[in-house]
Design goal:
By secondary structure, the protein is an alpha+beta fold. It has a domain at 256-356: Aminopeptidase. Helices cover 36% and strands 19% of the residues. The protein is built from 13 helices and 15 strands. The protein has helices spanning 6-16, 27-34, 48-57, 64-72, 89-97, 103-111, 113-126, 154-163, 182-185, 195-210, 242-246, 269-276, 334-351; strands at residues 2-4, 36-38, 76-79, 82-85, 129-130, 167-173, 176-181, 212-214, 227-231, 238-240, 256-258, 298-302, 305-315, 320-328, 355-356. It has a 5-stranded mixed β-sheet, with helices on one face. The longest helix has 18 residues, at 334-351. The mean pLDDT is 96.
Length: 359
Amino acid sequence: MHELSRDDARRLVVRAQLLDAQRPGDVVEVAEQLGSIKIDPTATIAPAEQTVPWSRIGWSYEPGQLRKAVEQDRLLFEFDGHFHAASLMPAMVARMRGRVFRAQASAWMAANAAFRADVLARLRAEGPMPASQISDTSQVAHKDEAGWYGSNQVPRMLDLLSYLGEVGIVGREGRQRVWDIGERVYPADLPVLDYEEAERVLEARRLQAAGLAKQKSPWTPVGTAGEPARVEGSSWTWRVDPAALAALDEDPGGRVAILNPYDRFLFDRPRLRELFEFDYILEQFKPAAQRKFGYFAHPILVGDRFIGQLDAQLDKKRETLVVNAVHELVPWDDEETEMVRAEILDLGSWLGVPVAGLR
């Protein structure tokens, strides 16, 4: 049982997320450590798939690097709203092929067996294409009470087939996904893993990305990967990545990081509260009058503490990054103020625009 101070626990997490002073070299290195990079179109500043690498790599990251890694080099691949490291493909494909849908989705697929065959035949015969080029020949429409899909049934069919590995995404045309048949997306010579072995691989990689996670967490499911640990002042049972623990003495120190609200680091809200005493609430879906920090405020990490939130947006007409507010969660000293200011200016430089409203 490893005994960790709260400071060491936080440093483990920050380093595992590549948010310490030693920056990674490229987007593939980021994806290999984090496992995946979230894709989201919300772009008050820039989409998540671009700001997540930027917050790790810094000014040298160029958006075209991500597309090249996915569509040309095939070192990353898209699945279920994320760009994943290619090294995870064998385990993820094994889980896809062993997937069993819940009753409602199974019934819909069974009722649309001919539609499913049509979609697969079209892709197999004609090659990659966006959903908009595939005909909706469904027999039964899905009752979409959540509002994720429109009346066209093709996107839902493609999503469900992708969860089974029968189709996959090979690129994008703008924001539209380009689909192909699974046998051309996932190489035939992938290492073969059984369903349980694949889950153990994925649990280990989740712990690698987390550094430290609660053993029974629905937000960061790591199972029994790693080794048991206790954290000072916490009653939780933890699992720690032994490689991260061994490298803790090599810590190069912290820095400022401005995080997209959909950054994976922020996903496990209970862990944020337990380790970082940061109760992060995304106000995107709140009425404007109830927002305290802003529609899509970006948390600000300094070292191993969350000290503020940045409310800013890219004004495309003025070609300016407009800072509406920089909220201090705790009082800042002069050094912290200057460090945060410099990072916001760096963000503007990366976007290629001036910054307005920064005091």
